[in-house]
Amino acid sequence: MIYGLYLSATGVMTNAYRQDVIANNIANSETVGFKKDLALFDQRLTEAQQRRLAASGPLSPSNALLEKLGGGLLVHPTTIDTAQGELEPTGSPLDVAIEGDGYFAVNSGGQTRLTRNGQFAVDSTGHLILSNARGEQVLDVEKRPIQLEPGGDVWVGKDGTITQRGRPVARVGVFDVADRSKLAKQGGALISYGEQDLTPAMTATLHNESVERANLDPATELAALMDTQRQLEANANMIRYQDQTLSKLVNEVGKIG
Questions:
Q1: pLDDT value at position 75?
Q2: Which of 10, 79, 208, 214 is deepest in the core (most CB within 10 A)?
Q3: Which tens digit of pLDDT belongs to each residue from 220-246?
């Protein structure tokens, strides 16, 4: 493949990927507990360098000028930015926000999932659930569903203790994992954690009548999206210019008179 076309093609693909990630972040800017995704890249070695590296040979340059250009970009798996989001008061006693590290645990189709979404509700059976369409059951410190007494005011303390009629009835579990790089989004603000063990989050503080907003600034994400679109267009234009140059080379310069 012609080197310039390859570099421009990798520029188009990586910027298209980054554009999708940023657009998804913007679309979820109002989703409670949403953690933005980061599009990461790495510089690719040139083909000659990769072949010598695979053969365990010396990494001497095959062409000093071209190898300084590199081999384009490689896309890395999307990483979750776990930074703290802004806390927003709601006035609802069943809204809880986490300040610090940690996640709520819920039962999603028989599997335990993590979330920073603290918009809770009580279903018809008295279970504490997420206030969404699927209504996943919120788990306590023993990873069991939380059953509340019928009626009565509900209050969640800073340590997760749920109080009804002035009496503690349960405690919301807040957990953490050893390796957050293994966290993977499952949709609906839910996160899977692989084969890791869940441990109590020691630094988490809960805030009643509040929720955690998405940890992103829409204006910053929009500026990044516009920059990505310009880079994508620039690489696409380079492909067109190189194609026109090759067309002239083949049809005019190489023409036999």
A1: 80
A2: 214
A3: 999 999 999 999 999 999 989 888 888
- Per-residue confidence (pLDDT) for residue 26, from 0 to 100: 96
How far from 46 is each of 7, 12, 42, 74, 238, CA to CA, in Å? 10, 18, 13, 12, 20
The DSSP result for the chain, as a single string, is: --HHHHHHHHHHHHHHHHHHHHHHHHHTTTSTT---EE--EEEPPPHHHHHHHHTT-----S-HHHHTT---EEEPPPEE--PPPPEEE---TTBEEEESS-EEEEEETTEEEEE---BEEE-TTSBEEESSSS-PEEBBTTS-B-BPPSSS-EEE-TTSEEEETTEEEEEB-EEE-S-GGG-EEEETTEEE-TTPPPEE-TT-EEEETEEEPPSS-HHHHHHHHHHHHHHHHHHHHHHHHHHHHHHHIIIIIT---
What's the pTM?
0.82
